[in-house]
Amino acid sequence: LYERKPFISGNWKLNPQSKDEAVALASGIAGSITESSPDAEVALFVPYVFIESAQSAVGGKLSIGAEGVCPQGNGAYTGAISAPMLNSIGVNWVLAGHSERREIFGETDEYINEQCLKIIDEGMSVMLCIGESLAEFEQDLAGSVCAVQLKKGLKGIKKEDLGRVAIAYEPVWAIGTGKVATPEIAQSVHETCRSIIAKIYDDEAAQDMRILYGGSVSPESVDDLMKQPDIDGALVGGASLDSDKFGRIINFQK
Ligand code: PEP
Question: In whole angstroms, how far apart are CA 30 and each of 37, 63, 87, 161, 186?
């Protein structure tokens, strides 16, 4: 009934450490996309300073996104990067709400919502990351944590703009730990997230929304994750720094 285009994305975080390495990695990843690859959208979220050289390196085979944005439009915000700045260099996708931003940089749901609104307002697309901590998971709170983060993160985004929104469910206990959620656990939270989106908007919005899984996705785990009905893609940290591994993830088999 509903066809959601698969979406494979990588998040380089604070890597790599030089422009030369970034260009080599981006072109290696682009090289893994062939005519026989799945019909999927592919994006890499990279450090700001590498965006333009990575764009040139991939030659339009995938999109180069930004790892974050400052919601202020302009002014006295030393060190910040605005949505118009990103838009002006051809960025389409921007991450918001990554657990590292929430934890290490103290970003709140309200601040993340401001980022989402600004990204949408500027005509770009946002990947909103949500997910529970280990303690919350153990107390069976994954669904309720995601409900709060979804409601607050999406606040004020109109239904007609949802085509420019994707959700990444990333259980914090699975990020960078090598402990990937089982396909069953991930599927169950994705299904819950979809029902929360149906409550916030409606069933059509929920069925159209792409919900990606993130947390230690690897060449070994991607296929079984992608077989789940409510898992529409992956947000990949560590394995996106290796062109062979990420290439294999892009070429997932359902
Ligand atoms: C991430 O940073 O979004 C992530 C999922 O990292 P990793 O794949 O390394 O767990």
Answer: 11, 10, 22, 29, 28
Residue 190 a catalytic site member: no
Task: Using the mean position of ligand 1's atoms as its centre, give its distance from the Cα of residue 182 in Å.
Answer: 15
User: In 3-state terms, what secondary structure has residue 254?
Assistant: coil
Given the residues 67, 98, 114, 190, the one annotated as active site: 98
The answer to whether residue 136 is catalytic is no
- Token duo for residue 93: 């996708």
State how far the Cα of 113 lies from the Cα of 119, in Å rounded to an integer: 10
pLDDT tens figures, 207-232: 999 999 999 999 999 999 999 999 99
What pTM, to 2 d.p., does this model score? 0.97
Distance separating alpha carbons of residues 86 and 143, to the nearest angstrom? 33
How much is the ipTM here?
0.96
What sign does the dihedral 79-85-90-96 (CA atoms) show? Answer: positive
What three-state secondary structure class fits 10? strand
Query: pLDDT by residue (tens digit) across 129-151?
Result: 999 999 999 999 999 999 999 99
Spell out the CATH class of 7-67+126-250. Answer: alpha beta
